[in-house]
Amino acid sequence: MYNFTDDCLIGIEMIDNEHRELFRIVNDIQNLLDSDANDKYDRSIEMIDRLKEYAKEHFRHEELYMESIDHPELELQKKQHSDFCDKINEADMTIAGSGQDEFLTDLLKFLVTWLYRHIIGSDLLIGKLRPVNERSQKIEFTDKYLTGISQIDEEHKELFRIIDNLYSVMNDDFIADKYDEIISLLEQLKNYTKFHFEDEEAYMKKINYKDLPAQQRAHEAFIARLDDMDLAHIDENQQDTLEELLEFLTEWLTNHILHSDKNIGK
Ligand SMILES: [Fe+2]
Ligand SMILES: [Fe+2]
Ligand SMILES: [Fe+2]
After folding, report:
1. 91, 143, 192, 248: which has the highest count of C-beta atoms within 10 A?
2. If you measure from the C-alpha of residue 136 to the centroid of ligand 1, how many angstroms do you get, rounded to a whole number?
3. How far is 235 from 223, CA to CA, in rounded Å?
């Protein structure tokens, strides 16, 4: 059973309802695969097709919504959405015999992992990213971000510091080529983020924290976005890429601390 948990809610009703429906279809397919029905493979394949059609409709609605609010990640999202449809289109459903069960279960697992990552890593920011002229030039760690767990708070402060260094590079008009500095700070950010997530997850395990799986999913989605970054694109258009990247990092991280990490302390 793949749970559509509260951390997947983005706060826009139409989109949330459609995401919930996608999970409902995925769970129907999983239940069918787990059953003893004779025709379960044929029916599963039909349902995967239905999932694809529903996802396409949903992506269309979501893209229209993003267009209407001038969401800066529209192009990125369009690409991610078409990757999802391609993956289903490329799947060879004709696989016969005993391999069918494993094949369909794996495909479903891939699709649901993609959905979790995409919703938490990208959709969650719909309506939260600011237009270019309203973006801030800095990220400051204030008391509102404190979780009350000193180790976690110190690590969050360090993350803010690294991001702040990226802001400084962005605002420095005297460096002509910022590529090397951007790449080195991104590396630092990635490594420190992984280190921090491990610590945070270890702490949650220790206190038997009930939302650990949701946190793990969120962390994984964030790391995946960092790993998927197109470095060549950074070199082509340093200033704009940096600006978009910082907007994503700042919004994702502050949102995650305020809505997820702070609950660990409670
Ligand atoms: Fe999306
Ligand atoms: Fe954290
Ligand atoms: Fe976290």
Report:
1. 248
2. 25
3. 21
pLDDT of residue 193: 98
The reply to whether domains 6-125 and 133-265 share a CATH topology is yes
Q: Ligand 1 being an ion, which residues bring their Cβ within 5 A of it? A: 62, 77, 123
Ligand nearest to the CA of 76: 1
Give residue-wise pLDDT tens across range 57-116.
999 999 999 999 999 899 999 999 999 999 999 987 777 666 888 899 999 999 999 999
CATH of range 133-265; options 2.40.10.270, 3.40.50.300, 1.20.120.530, 1.20.120.50: 1.20.120.50
Ligand closest to Cα of 259 equals 3
HEC readout, 182-233: HHHHHHHHHHHHHHHHHHHHHHHHHCCCCCHHHHHHHHHHHHHHHHCCCHHH
For the chain, give the mean pLDDT. Answer: 92
Ligand at minimal distance from the CA of 79 is 1
Q: Give the domain ranges of the chain.
A: 6-125, 133-265
CA of 237 relative to ligand 1 center, distance in Å = 24
Task: Give me ligand 2 centre to Cα 226, in Å.
Answer: 15
pLDDT at 126: 94
Regions of the chain where pLDDT drops below 50: none
CA of 57: how far to CAs of 20, 21, 85, 159, in Å?
14, 12, 11, 38
